[in-house]
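Question:
When you can, review this sequence-structure pair and walk me through the tokens.
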Amino acid sequence: MVRSAVVVKYEEGVHRELFWCLCCRQEVKRHLSHGSLTVLHGGLLQHFASPEHKKEVSRFWWENKAEGRLKPQFVISPEDYERFKVSLVKALDAYEEREDELVKEMAACIREVEQSRQELLQATLELPAEGEQCDGASAFSAPVRSESNRAVAVAEEQSGPSGGLPMVPDHGWLEGGPALTFIGHQEAAGKGNIHTGAEPPWLMQDEAAPGSKQIGPSYEEFLKEREKQNLQKLPPERVGANFDHASQTGDGWLPSFGRVWNHGRRWQSRHQYKSESGEKAASQKKKERPKPNNL
């Protein structure tokens, strides 16, 4: 049994649990929520203390002939429920105190951040003020410099076809070394960077060397050689072993594999094939038979 109440902040997915009361045959809320607060197991205790639940527990014990000593575990007395209410008031006060402390801590943190921001702002405003004091000295020299520039401009206006000698440009700086001719930027075709519109290296095709040759056989030659090796593993006297695939056949060609449709009837072709195979075997045995030694 819950001895004292526990108050926490309400959470949508956690504090909406239901439990099935076997005696009352209905679902009941496990926790008791109000606003943003939740009393853990408050709904369970409230249901166990209700008179309807006590009546249903008595009916369940009578119908199922349950043990009487277990019945008090499924019912909460009014005295226990009153003690739970008293602990609930204390839990609410403790929760409010904790929330007030959290609010005070957050307010102190906000004040500290605001103070540091004000100090930083004050420091940034003082720097331009010092810069304006330094620029004050240069402000007095600006009119003098502008007056000298105005005098030079007046002298240039007076010098001309009616005012005096014309201004001759000084080309002495050209006599210091040999003359140079600018022929433009030399860039190789197809080279450069992305800013000149050149093709990136990963899209360029490799130029084949003139003396490069293919190393090893081609793929077609490899397939032909592999097919030839596979044919060598087959029995040499199989049907169609000596068939020339490159030979030209006429329109009247018929397949002769297995001595079928050779000439005459099927049984004649079969006997002819057996006789020829027997003659071949006999001739092969004669060749393999050792010759007698002449004394």
The radius of gyration is 57 Å. Residues 207 and 213 are 13 Å apart (CA to CA). Confidence is low (pLDDT under 50) at residues 139-147, 161-166.
